[in-house]
Every structure is written in structure tokens, then in C-alpha cells.
Amino acid sequence: MPKLLLALLIFSLAFAIERAPPGDFNLVKAALADDDDDDGGGRGGFSARNDDDDDNGVLRRSVRRRQASRPAAPPPPPPIRAPDEIVVQGLNDGDLDQLLGAGFSIIREINLQDGQSLRRLRKPAALTLGEARDAVRQYESGGNADFNHFYRGESGTACLSPDCPARQMIAWPVSSGCGGTPPRIGMVDTGLNAGHEALANSEIVVHRLESGDRPSGAMHGTAVAALLVGSPSSRAPGLVPHMSLVAVDAFHKVGADERADVFALIEALDLLERQRVRIINLSLSGPPNMLLERRVSELDVREVLVVAAAGNGGPNADPAYPAGYETVLAVTAVDRRGRIYRRAGRGPHIDLAAPGVAVWTAASIRGTRTKTGTSFAAPFVTATAALMLEADPDLVPANLHRRLLDSANDLGEAGRDDIFGHGLLKIPPLCENRRG
To answer: Which PANTHER family match (predicted)?
Structure first.
């Protein structure tokens, strides 16, 4: 009998909670206020899903709790490439006709600034993806054909502490003080919220690439853009708020997966080159790709510096790209004590370390919060290179690269190492020794 009475008492209490006015349980809702997702505004905003209000609420909640207690199977890893696509640059009409006759079809094609074509081809059903790539590469003009790899933003876990002295850590200057002409910065990322209060007075041009898929969210791109050019009067002041930013949204969503394929990435880089940017920030990573390697090498020759996140695959992961390419400045993340971010990639390609743990920036809709990941370390190097170009517009990428590495503060083992590269970013002299 006592057990039956206890069960009835518990059921009555649960039913009372379920039917109570919402105002009686504000503390529960307040716990959601700092969730940083694409539906709510970080600090100062949240969205709550209301349960259906009926007499079965307690039973449904009980079932959900039991289901939640069961260990969930780990989700499958996201795909690294499109399952049936080949991308090729500079394929001539004769070779294209041969491939179309063999069962290939054109998904999309554009002309790059240098006049060469860039095409997405769908393979014949009878060929495996590897066989399809080999079939295109057998033609003289198709030797650079590769898979349509996917690239993703390199966010990490969010830190909840507002104390983020990242700029003091590298003695960030208030201004260059050299009176030069600010260079135009480019970035390829997800969508961004140009109407965010942190970006309200910023000079930003946003381009959205064509895509039949669901558009990307604004969380990642807004955070990166605010780090670069956020209004100095906002709660997320940018590193170089007086400079202009050209942002290309090359991402789309497939289910919960937010990604950019290599076709879109190359198209975005070509668009930025047409906009005459001097520096491009790529807070994203993916596998190696022949076409991507070719494009970043061409940008280096045309005096455009590319800065990329080193990736958050962990210390045992293979190098992430485009950071792994020789001409790209690969940036890893450290915390306020100079300790490496635990999920940061490592290897001989790492160039510099920059603040990337608990970095204060804009949330997606409104407000601010801290972010962690190599994505948020890369803008520090991008902004530093921009200040250097403002002071000396004649600097070419090779000289920018060398001066940044030479001025770094050594971390870890003496000299260059695979964890911190050449060390922690340090702002080199901006107004003296302008040549070289």
C-alpha cells in the first residue's frame, strides 16, 4: 500500500508541473539562454520548443527520458565527396564531346577569370567514381580532373567564459598608424548575418553562390566576419574594423551537414580574385584536391595571400586542406596560456599559432559569445597580414609569409615544430623596414 500511495503522489506532482503556468518555471527556460545556434541569439536570446499541452504530457516525457538514457549509436561520418561527380578545369570542346558521348553529363559550368572553363560532370552509372576520374584524366585537357570534395567550417566547442584576453595575448595594436590604404579582405565561409549589430557599420559585400540545396546557416560566417571587421562600438569589435570585406557564401546544407564542395570553393576563390582582394581567409578544411591545389598556387602567383585554418581533426589526423598546401599560411589555435587547442591538427605544414580558444565574437542572430576552434584563430593572422599590407602595399605573399614567421614568438620545442609551427603570432613592425 505505501508503494501505491507514493506512486500516486509522484504522478500528481508531475501532473501539477505539466499544467502549471509557464511563468512559474522561468528558471528552466533561462538555462537555454546561452545556447548558440542558428535559431537563437547567443547571450540574450533563445528559442524554446513547447511540448504539446495535453493530459498525456507526463507519459510522453517519461518515454522520452527512457529513450534518452539509452546509448545512441554514433552517427556515420559525413561524406568527403559527392558520390557521382567529377570536377575538371580547362577541358576542351573535343574532349568534352567525347566524354558526353561516353555517358557523362554536365551539371554546371562556369568560365574562370583566366578564361578557362570549370565543369561539374555527372559520371555514367556504369563507372565507379575512381573509374570516372581516370576516364576524364586520360584526355590531355582533363589531366587535372578530381572528385568534388567537400570542405567544412572548422568550429570547435564553445567556451562559456566571457574572459577572453586574446588581443592582449598578442599585443594587438589599436591601429597601424602608417596612413596607408587599407587592402580589401576576402573570405569564403557560410552565410552571415550582415544585419547583426556587430556588423551594422561594417563595409561588407556578401555574395551567395548558386545552389539548388538548402542555404547555409549564419553562425560560422557571422562569427568569422565579426572577428575581422566588427564595429568597434559593438560588443564584438573587429580586429580591422576600418577595412572592407568581401564575403562569399559557398556553403549549403544537406540534412544537418553544412559544407562547400570543391566546385563552389574554386568558384568563390575566382570571384574574390575578380574583386581584387589581397588576402583571403579560409576558416574551413577538407581533403586534398588537385584542382584546389592548382587554384591556391595560382593565387599566390597573382599576389593574393591565402590564410587557412589548420583543422580540428585532432593531433593524429592527416593534414587538412587547403592549409596543407605550401603557399597557404596554416594557422593553429592556442588558449590564453599558449597551450595548444586539444583538437587542433598537427604536422610539418603548420605555420603559426594564434588565439583560438574562448575567442569573443558575434553570435549568429544577435548578441555575442565565445568560440573555440582553428576557424577563429585564422582571422588573427588574416588581420595581421592586412595591417602589414596597409603599411606597405608592395609586399607580396612570399614576403608577408616570411615576415610573419620570422616575427613569431617561439612556443613548445625550440625552433619550428609540428604543434605550434614557428610559434605564436606577433605583430611585426608596421611602419618601418617596409620593403621585404
So the answer is: CEREVISIN-RELATED (PTHR43806:SF11), PEPTIDASE S8 (PTHR43806)
